Fold Protein-L-isoaspartate(D-aspartate) O-methyltransferase.
Amino acid sequence: MPRPASVTRASLPPQPSFPGANATRPPGARPPVDSVQGRRERLVRDLAARGLQDLAVLDALRTVPRDAFVDPALASRAYDDTALPIGHEQTISQPFTVGRMLELMRQGRPPGQRLARVLEVGTGCGYQAAVLGQIADMVFSIERIRALHELARSNLRPLRLANVRLHFGDGRVGLPHEGPFDGIVVAAAGFELPQELLDQLRVGGRLVAPVARGDGRQRLVVIDRTGRADWQRAEADDVHFVPLRSGTT
């Protein structure tokens, strides 16, 4: 039997105050390209050029300081569009992949409409949870590796996000006591999607997850819950994620 999840609540003021996120500049001016904010702006422009179109997602990626979630030795690569190691054979996802998954989850919604409740499976270092916190009213994120759960707590604490709650537990089981969810995003790939997660989507909700295939490839899968016992499935892009495992460690 899976262990019950333990919860960490970020009970701090609701308005984030990220370094440089709201810095004022003369109209039309850009930050220096070699500054952290300048590199963040350049990354967002590059992601838009690659095809990300959801302005809410792009703004969230612009707001969250990715350098706060990587090892200091890798800080110079924080705004490269690449996955980076975070220890325990895990990675912080490529920014384009984060943006693409969240864009798919929001697809069809009005530009200014926020998701009410979102579940993230696989907190990792906490970066995607922070990005989700910009586009959702409440974010619940679960991590099976205790050391990463603690790392995410440490990384998120200075950002003062009151709407992000971290849980330690088995992500394949989800958080049924916090559901149903408008959106679920899974940051690890299994050969099938756990029914427990599908059941935690509200009717009208959407799950985005990588799914492994027998040929060694992975595809992003989008699941819409259309009825009490009905789900619709579509496939999107080829991706590469760490395996989705059961239990805790």
Notes: Residues 6-27 have pLDDT under 50 and may be disordered. The chain is about 25% helix and 30% strand.
